[in-house]
Amino acid sequence: MFTLGVNAAFHDPAAALVHDGVVVAAAEEERFTKIKHGKRPVPFSTWELPFHAIDFCLRHAGIRLVDVDHVAYSFDPSLLPGATLGGPAITIPLDLSAYLEQGLGGEWLEPWDPLFLTSIVNAPGQLADGAPHHLKERFAGVTRSGPYRWHFVAHHLAHAASAFLPSPFASAAVMSLDGRGERATTTYWRGAGSELWSLGDVEMPHSLGLLYESVTDYLGFLRSSDEYKVMALASYGTPRYADEFREMIVVGDGGRYEIAPVELPRRFGPPRLRGGAIGEHHLDIARSLQLVLEERVIALARWLRDASGERALCLAGGVALNCVMNARLRDTHIFDDIWVQPAAGDAGTALGAAMWIDARERGDATDARERGEGTAARQRGDATAVREHSPPADRPWRMEHAFLGPDFTDDEIEEFLKWTRVPYRRLDDRDEAVAALLAQDRVIGWFQGRMEFGPRALGARSIIASPINASMQQRLNDIKDREDFRPVAPVVLEEEAGEWFEGASVAPYMLFVFNVRPDRAARIPAVRHVDGTARVQTIRREQNASYYDLLAAFHRRTGVPVLINTSFNTRGEPIVCTPRDAVESFWTSPLDALVIGPFFLEKRVGDVPDDTAAARHADEAITVS
Fold it and tell me: What whole-number distance in Å separates Cα of residue 398 and Cα of residue 407?
């Protein structure tokens, strides 16, 4: 049985494919279209489905859309305030000129919501006949009604499923925190086996995610995109406005909270314009917001621990990408263990929706009539309905890594390199040759194996460098055309992690920060942020052999089991996906070299290293112009 998951409602459109409980492929649309985040989260872009990501998933499995049994779309339009979708006809008001001037009234949250809803209701038809011309062959033979069954899955249920179902826990508390779904902005669950029971939620307009987005916009960055910059900026400030944010976010009973009217200009003065100077005032706003976010999420987690009775926690939703918040929550020890979905943002809902429907359909022993009666309630996570239709606790797949995207054979890579006529050579001992270059402070594009799913580059589409020279952080920000305050992250051999970062053991997805050990700080200054922390990725060989072996070679050469790992892209561009993307990014940025599969490229043809000699002469310098 094949189940296709689709996210398209807001931003980061993505697709995932599950085959009999096992996730076989997942990717974000931005990697194929080169449009950052796939699209902007505006109502009139909702009709855009991730056709390229869907095409990849189907192609990877060797099937066509007509071979899919179920399609799971990670938004349920029947839950949108104001929607009336029952009966023989669907009526959605669209007199936007009047609504924009007068307001919708009734239950509609925004004047554009009817247009937003119209696109979602018509998504089945769009999937059937809206594919771009060059992809149509793989989408041929289907209609709005299938032959697959279409499922609308509640947005936060998809987030929760993406967090719990692939997690290492048999049972756990689950919390989803993001901007908004249909109505909910924060949801709480208990997961056991392959089931989720709803424990409560918070609804619009109260949203921690939307508050963080508003401050991101106020500070001159792009909302629904640059929130991680505010998190980085916060380390430079002091929380002198913390009480202002505490007044804005009031936590009540039962996991509830309310967001008071934000009114940032009234509270803090005129907003910063994009590209304007960043002053102490802006740093302190960022720090205050970050601190109070952490405090409030900790309070919600304490309630959830008691409400669920669980000792483990799973997190998803865009707010769960805040690695500083995650670390603060970890260090409270409210829960014994925390697992965060690496694609915690909206892209991950494609995976969650597919896994949820796959588990329901594989495990549901009831007949078609009973299944039809229970579908809507189960998709909303209704506790009673889930218990009545509980499938066996069958979870055949655990997420051990995020390498679920496209890959390319050595022959395919070399064919492309020959076609471009760029100079290259094959490295006979890649790990030692590249480790020698890294030890000489060369900055290298690293393109190996299957692309990562989620926003983090984790060693398949990465830029790598040595952390030993403190100036490397600034150099990388220059290469990537990033803001000076942005930190760079380390990857460390899993078995060495605790020796270099306090309390670090297993953290494969860069979703937690750890303090750099004081006795090691001078050895890896480039990855130590201004607050003494680093956003750590650990790696073991079973997860990514080529990446691990390179790091081990660098460890043997330098005594440091740590490299800088940052995403292989430049500002405004998605992470590279294909060999073409990698070569174009390499030649249009100040990278020193590119290692793509076993092949080596650099900008000075005469500097191609003798990798065998490099392995013999550990201290031999390689000149960098």
Answer: 21
